[in-house]
Amino acid sequence: MGEDDAPQVVVGLGNPGPQYAGNRHNIGFLVADELAARVGGKFKAHRSGAEVLEGRLAGARVVLVKPRSFMNVSGGPVAGALRFFKAPLERLSVVHDELDLPFGAVRLKLGGGENGHNGLRSISKSLGSREYHRVRFGIGRPPGRQDPADFVLRDFSAAERKELAFEVDRCADAVEALVGQGLTAAQNSFHAT
């Protein structure tokens, strides 16, 4: 199988276990679950240390990945999935929470720093590169003097939860655009809103 046959690999970041399910840090899992519903399948345990679902999205072969490890050590399962599916780095997209964007804002980029995000730091270290796509879902900054590390492990507020399904759906649309049309077209569609 050549690189042209390689799938797009979309990773949703989060922490495993029901106690984390509604946390801001788990937005990547929520978007991955929405994408799984669109693909029409269920995640299955994979030897890479992640839950994986293969299917088609926006006309492309795609592998959806949810690491089973904790966020701070998600690099190993992500690197393992890329190796297993023989996907090059440029076909990797990681969906994650972003403190520096207001709640619900979606921004896409290629490469760059990790901005203090331990999940991204672990992935960059395991891959030996920062040159992968990021789909950043804004969660806003913590109020007052609340520690960001505490803030990301809290559930979305009641007001945010009212909008959450809509925003997750829109973020999944952005991933589909990225997979189907490429970065520039997806940015043009989603950065204007």
Automatic annotation (TrEMBL):
Catalytic activity as recorded in UniProt: an N-acyl-L-alpha-aminoacyl-tRNA + H2O = an N-acyl-L-amino acid + a tRNA + H(+)
Keywords from the named record: Cytoplasm, Hydrolase, RNA-binding, tRNA-binding
GO molecular function, one term: peptidyl-tRNA hydrolase activity
EC number, as in UniProt: 3.1.1.29
Binding annotation for tRNA: 20, 70, 72, 118
Catalytic residues (UniProt): 25
Enzyme class: hydrolase
One Gene Ontology biological process: protein quality control for misfolded or incompletely synthesized proteins
GO cellular component: cytoplasm
Residues with site note (Discriminates between blocked and unblocked aminoacyl-tRNA): 15
PROSITE patterns reported in the protein's UniProt record: PEPT_TRNA_HYDROL_1 (PS01195), PEPT_TRNA_HYDROL_2 (PS01196)
Subunit structure: Monomer.
Family label: Belongs to the PTH family.
NCBIfam families on file: pth
Protein name in UniProt: Peptidyl-tRNA hydrolase
